[in-house]
Specification:
By secondary structure, the chain is mainly α. The protein is built from five helices and two strands. It has a two-stranded antiparallel ribbon with strand order 1-2. Strand 1 and strand 2 form a beta hairpin. Helix 2 packs antiparallel against helix 3 and helix 2 runs antiparallel to helix 5. The longest helix is centred in the middle third of the chain and has 37 residues. The two termini are 27 Å apart.
Length: 177
C-alpha cells in the first residue's frame, strides 16, 4: 500500500501497519484509564471519550485480532513450524482478553450513560487498568517475538497479500448489510 507523507510516497510495510495498530491499542487503553481517573473532565468529555473507546474496542480491535489470527498466524506457522508455540501463546492470549474486553465495554457503556457517577468510574478504572496491564504483556510478546520474523520469514508477496486482506476486512466491516 502506497502512503504519501510530506509529498513523498513510500511503501507501507506490514510490520509498520501492525505497530500502528498496537499504538492505537495503547492509546485507547490509556484513554479508558484517563476517563476513569481524571477529575477535571466534564460529563460531556467523559461521555464522548467513552463512545470513542467503545467504538474502538468494539469494532477496530476485533479486526486487528482477526488480522493476526486469520492472515498472519497461518502464514507464519507454514514457513516455520517452530513458531507454533509463540503463535499458540498469541492466540491463547487473544482468547484470554475476550472477557477483559467484554468487561471493559460494559464499564465504558455504564460510564457513557452516567459519566459523573463515581462508582461507575471506579469500576471503569479497575477494568481499564487490568486490561491495560494484560494487553501490554501481549503487545510486547508480539513486538519482540513475532513481528521481527515477518520480514525475514514471509515473502514480500505474502506480506502484500496480508495487507490486501487487512484492507478488505476493513472495507467489508463498514459496508452496509
Amino acid at each position: 500500500m502506497l502512503v504519501t507523507l510530506g509529498g513523498q510516497e513510500r511503501q507501507e510495510s506490514l510490520v509498520d501497519l501492525l505497530l500502528e495498530c498496537h499504538h492505537r491499542i495503547r492509546h485507547f487503553s490509556g484513554v479508558s484509564v484517563k476517563l476513569a481517573t481524571l477529575r477535571e473532565l466534564n460529563a460531556e468529555e467523559i461521555s464522548e471519550g467513552s463512545a470513542r473507546c467503545l467504538r474502538y474496542f468494539g469494532e477496530a480491535l476485533p479486526l486487528h485480532v482477526e488480522d493476526e489470527e486469520r492472515s498472519l498466524l497461518p502464514r507464519l506457522v507454514k514457513v516455520d513450524p517452530k513458531l507454533s508455540k509463540v503463535l499458540c501463546t498469541m492466540k491463547e492470549q487473544h482468547q484470554g482478553h475476550e472477557p477483559l474486553i467484554g468487561r471493559l465495554l460494559e464499564m465504558l457503556t455504564r460510564v457513557q450513560v452516567a459519566p459523573l457517577d463515581q462508582q461507575r468510574r471506579a469500576d471503569l478504572r479497575d477494568s481499564a487498568e487490568r486490561f491495560s496491564k494484560e494487553i501490554e504483556t501481549h503487545l510486547h510478546l508480539e513486538e519482540s517475538d513475532i513481528f521481527p520474523l515477518i520480514e525475514g520469514c514471509l515473502s514480500q508477496e505474502a506480506q502484500d497479500e496480508i495487507l490486501a486482506e487487512l484492507r478488505d476486512r476493513r472495507v467489508d466491516s463498514f459496508r452496509a448489510p
